[in-house]
Design a protein that fits this description.
This protein has 437 residues and is α+β, with helices and mostly antiparallel strands. The protein folds into 3 domains: 3-224, Rossmann fold, CATH 3.40.50.1820; 230-312; 318-435, Trefoil (Trefoil (Acidic Fibroblast Growth Factor, subunit A)), CATH 2.80.10.50. The protein has 14 helices and 21 strands. The protein has helices at 44-50, 70-81, 94-101, 103-106, 129-132, 162-174, 198-208, 216-226, 228-238, 243-250, 253-256, 262-265, 268-280, 284-300, and strands spanning 3-8, 12-17, 24-28, 53-59, 87-92, 110-114, 152-157, 179-183, 318-321, 326-330, 335-339, 348-350, 352-355, 359-366, 369-376, 379-383, 391-396, 402-406, 409-413, 419-423, 432-435. The strands form 4 sheets. An 8-stranded mixed sheet has the order 1-2-4-3-5-6-7-8, sandwiched between helices. Strands 13, 14, 15, 16, 17, 18, 19 and 20 form an 8-stranded antiparallel sheet that branches. It has a 3-stranded antiparallel sheet with strand order 11-10-12, with no helix packed on it. A hairpin with a 2-residue loop joins strand 18 (402-406) and strand 19 (409-413). Helix 1 packs across helix 7. The chain is elongated and about 85 Å long. The chain starts with a strand and ends with a strand.
Amino acid sequence: MTSLILFNGEDIVLHFQKGISDFIIVTFESVNKEGEAESGFFGKKPANKNGYNIIGITSKKPNWYLSSEMETALSLCSNITRDYSIIICFGYSMGAYGSIKYSRSIGATSTLALAPQYSILSSDCPLNDFLSGFSAFAQPGMAITSADIGGRIYIAHDPCEYVDTVHANLIAAQAEHAVHLFPFFGAGHQIIDYVKGSENFQKMMLSLAGKTKTDIVNVVSLIRRRQGSYLSKLFGASCQKHPYLTAKALLSKTFTEIDSVDEIYTNRTMQSALTGALLRQGYLFEASALIISNYLYAREGRYDNAFSDRDIRPSIHWMLTYHDWYLGYSVKNKAFARCDPFCPQGDALPVVIEQSAQTAYLMIDLLGRPTYLAPRSGRIVLIGNRSEEAQFEVVRHHEGTIFLRSPLGVIGARPDGSVYADSPNMMDWEKMLIVSP
């Protein structure tokens, strides 16, 4: 569908895209999109894909749509919307403010506002550092009032985001009968990142248009719970505090059937952190199942709790550092390095440990052959045979962790992914975990 520009002023641009729906959507673009005010608008692509009628209002300045040109834009807008009984306003952040501020003028039947502002005038409400940066565009009287509100207003906000929550409550206080607040936990201000996509857009718009039996609050809640990026963030926050529950959820059949979960399975930082937390707290069964599932996903693209299938267990014993990433060895640099055995990057190969009570051999698989690591001439080098030279001393800790020491010193890891092999100490951050299915 072709998008037309019906008005192009100094501040405001009015776009229109004709569709085949019996309702129309009016969107307001968010801040930091001023450079694209003429080339696009909020919701353009998903509306086009779903065949919806849509008007997109954009601004060439971060002015929260406080412009004398809005009168002209709204007049032109009404020439189109008067033919529709269902008018939906939709916006995020600055755009959410605009969608509520002009909801009555537009004749909106319903509005979905994601993390809106009540005002950006410091005397009206608290501002964070980001909003304070736009104070030059604030105007007295810009706060949303009951006279601005038309139709039913739905405001999504993260209750843990203090400023957004205050602004949402201030808006709700203007028209409690018309404004419905609902939480979007864990998203911060960037709620839009968790509901984007044509399919999600379709679900939300059809609900607001009354075309489905599910109300918009439940629709958005379901989208949130099934969004890979949201779940990845949620699991990342819970893996240290509740590793057992996180692993059980991650490995459940119900979870593996959720759409768009690749982002979680490929979040290697979260996966290795969860493995480390499970091992430290003694959940060996769950740690083993998680490792196997990661192995299956890397090998076959499926993520199952296959702990009972002994045939697919890789015969490996890797090393997990204090910072929850795997110990590797760079053949090119002849040094230890950060490594991900499930998703290799660069030339670092995973280090495998063969251990006895007090000694260990470290090796890598080089072209299908076990090649051992040995301290020599101040460096860790490759040697072809398992000799006394390749022995590392194992110093065990009561937590189940170990230190690895050679004549050069103790192996340790830094948060930035670098590894050293010459520490004279045995500090907490130099502890290693043996990872074995």
